[in-house]
Design brief:
The complex is a heterotrimer of chains A (327), B (324) and C (312).
Chain A lengths: L1 H28 L3 H6 L5 H11 L5 H13 L13 H36 L4 H15 L2 H15 L12 E3 L2 E3 L4 H34 L2 H8 L4 H39 L4 H11 L2 H29 L1 H4 L1 H6 L1
Helix pairs in contact in A: 1-4, 1-12, 5-6, 5-8, 5-10, 6-8, 7-8, 7-10, 8-10, 10-11, 10-12, 11-12
Chain B lengths: L5 E12 L2 E13 L4 E5 L6 H9 L7 E9 L2 E2 L5 H7 L4 E4 L3 H4 L6 H12 L4 H14 L5 H4 L9 H13 L5 E5 L7 H18 L2 E6 L2 H7 L2 E6 L2 E7 H6 L4 H8 L39 H5 L5 E2 L4 E2 L2 H5 L3
Parallel strand pairs in B: 3-8, 3-9, 6-7, 7-8
Antiparallel strand pairs in B: 1-2, 1-4, 4-5, 9-10, 10-12, 11-12
Helix pairs in contact in B: 4-5, 5-7, 7-8
Chain C lengths: L12 H7 L1 H7 L2 H18 L1 H4 L40 H37 L1 H15 L3 H15 L5 H32 L2 H9 L3 H37 L11 H9 L8 H28 L5
Helix pairs in contact in C: 2-12, 3-5, 3-12, 5-6, 5-8, 5-10, 5-11, 5-12, 6-8, 7-8, 8-10, 10-11, 10-12, 11-12
The chains are: A mainly alpha (327), B alpha/beta (324), C mainly alpha (312).
Chain lengths: 327, 324, 312
Amino acid sequence: MLAFVLRRLIQAVVVMLAVAFIAFMLFQYVGDPVTNLLGQDATAEQREQLRADLGLDQPFVVQFARFVGNAVRGEFGLSLRQGRKVSALVVERFPATIELAVSAAVIALLVGVPLGVYTALRRGTFGSQVWMTLSLVGVSLPTFLIGILLILVFAVIFKLLPSFGRGDVASIGGWTTGLLTVDGWKHLVLPAVTLSVFQLALIMRLVRAEMLEVLRTDYIKFARARGLSDRAVYFGHALKNTLVPVITITGLQLGQLIAFAIITETVFQWPGMGLLFIQAVQFADVPVMAAYLCLIALIFVLINLAVDLLYFAVDPRLRIERAAAGH
Amino acid sequence: MSKPLLEVNHLRVEFPTRRGTLVALDDVSFSIAPGEILGVVGESGAGKSLTGASIIGLLEPPGRIAAGEIRLEGERIDDLPPERMRTIRGRRIGAIFQDPLTSLNPLYTVGQQLIETIQTHLPVDAAQARARAVALLKETGIPAAEQRFDHYPHQFSGGMRQRVVIALALAAEPQLVVADEPTTALDVSIQAQIIALLKRLTKQHGAAVMLVTHDMGVIAEASDRVAVMYAGRIVEVGPVQQVIHHPAHPYTAGLMGSIPSMAATYERLLQIDGAMPRLNAIPAGCAFNPRCPQAFDRCRRERPDLMLAAGTEAACWLVDRGYR
Amino acid sequence: MSNVLASPAKTSRWARFLDSDLWYSFRHSPTAIAASLIALLCVVCALFAHWIAPHDPFDLATLDLLDARLPPAWIEGGTGKYLLGTDDQGRDILSALMYGSRISLFVGLASVALSMLIGVGLGLVSGFAGGAVDAFIMRVCDVMLSFPPILVALLIDGVGRALFPNAHEVLAFSVLVIAIALTGWVQYARTVRGSTMVERNKEYVQAARVIGVAPLRVMFRHVFPNVLGPVLVLATIQIAGAIITEATLSFLGVGVPPTSPSLGTLIRIGQDFLFSGEWWITVFPGLMLVLIALSVNLLGDWLRDALNPRLR
């Protein structure tokens, strides 16, 4: 098992290096790196100084190493658009995105899994067909459209919920949270639901497909042949076997959610990293783009690693391989 | 003659498809006495497994029982509501399937699966269930049963797993065990052990066995009586020695003749020309008539029922004519 | 004797198709029929927008500011001249819809086609070459799969914008199509690679080598039929995804150039008018987008189920 973890760690480092390389290329060759670091209003002297400091005449590898060193410390220079340090911007926006993504993930799981089980067990009935159609609609609707429709219904027509921003937020240490105020919650509802719809539909279809596969296996047939009750067969055996791959896949989906948040944050003007990134793309603000890229890659790599470890914890076949080899 | 434990009377199983209805089992009738081992032999596709599935009530839709009845100790079980059938499965009729690897849930220990089965059918508490489970494991010849109790299925070898499956099938003391190709997925060297184990345990627990297989060697080794199936019908049934040495039906004769034996010398192995017909192309009259070397006019027109021959019952007009 | 003796050579290919399980499944699936009809309708609208659309929303000369912000015809204040209402510049929504769909469909289909090309090509190379080349390509696939398509598209688009800040239309479209295409090629590559590896090990390939025939040519003839089914299903499912990705990018302001608005652009413009009550400017383009995506998805779903023998 140690060998496995080591191998995955090495893979993770390789991926991060590759991403850092792409970010580095962005930094150096798209736009001017000096401008990227100093902002647009630097004087000629400052630029000359930095050019010498940066050693822009140094070999490629040295520059790359320097970039990686900076990146690891979170140093990406100044935002071209706002003139502030990129790292400060990102740290400021991070909590908003995380709260949004986690809320959406929770909604998607809490609703998607039961619906998936229901449509698998009641396959072919009218109710399950309705839900399957709805899930197909959920997957076919682009996230931004869902957001707009929700705004139309709940903010414009019924004037029930707010449609932009985060509302009142409280600061705890370095973290800002909207979860401690009613206003914060009200602002969270529409964006979180919007973000969750796609994942919800996906999880529901995944759970259903997995469960249908599991229900066809020999061990389920044997369980029935032993006279176990429906409840024992469905929830004791089938569900457990279904959830093992599902739980790990939804772990990976958390990374997707953080990326999809870009769209939701744009629709609702939610002050998170996604909105920051979009504005950076529109403006060709390279330092911010590079920083976002590296951060997202890091999050993905960490989540992948965590999911792999989770697999180990849950599936006995992987755990006890060592012991079995002796028999 | 004691009352039969299981009676199957004129069972007909159909599969509706968009191109018409396929008849998979056509007028199948046989019985099993308490404690007896009935072998059911035939080629792939002859309907052996379907018969087993119908008996335990796990026929997969769209397949359905279209006619006939199945009686356990005189009561009908083919038309029971699902909940009642569930109480019979495991408790009065046990089942063993072919592949021991996929028959066990990989996420639960062997012990957990045993205890669950025992507690579903018998009113015992956790400690008693555990004791019973360990005893069963010991009975099936699994060494170090106490420790193995907490092991997962993938930690057992193929033969060991099938022993666990047998233990699970017998856990609730059923009167009948339907064993569907229990040794086909195992190494040849293990097969003999498992068959011997099955024979011994069922005798000890007083259970009858319906042993479905395509392997005549297994049949000869284990069964008291044997039924030969062909194209969804039973063509011959009788005591195992009679069927093997004095088969009345030409198909059975061909089957027996095609098995090589160490005792005899052959110029050429006997082979039956042609192949078993597909379900949508079963000939009129006797299903075997196109391939039968002794077919005559009546065979092509009328389908024969099982008739009493010298030592067995066979569905063949030759018996009627007195040639057998 | 048996009735399996109908001579197959005599029935034409058309007759065989009509008798096939696929056509049967299609005929008996109301969703498949409805979906393909809707998809067909949308495609026709888009293809022939030039001739069918009642107005040309991009011809500045025909726009009349006095006609701005008119509601749809069935609401008080609307007219039959502009069936679905107008936007703040007096453009007819219905016509804008049709032209917009054309752009959306074009980008969607072009990117899927490019995606197929890249994916199938790389899959063939990977499967045939094996060894280090194969391992490298598969690693790239793994990494790409773990990144959501939106991010990849945004990144490539962003880089394109930074590199070519004043790009003209053709370049902008190309960047967009490439961006979306690069998000979807991985599935094709994997499928084709699998089939290629299976075929490569077969004896006829080695035999061809011995004779001197280029095994590549021989393999094409045998690999292609095997992968055609899954590739087609993949393509159908991906078209909806590509259309949605393009709409999303345009909505975010980084998709098609503003001179050729797609459905996504229209929706973005319309969002600003939600609170002032002119909901039709955003809702109708949204509905059109959903119709297209949904019908293509339904078709893809049905096709996948129909071609999968295990599910029946």
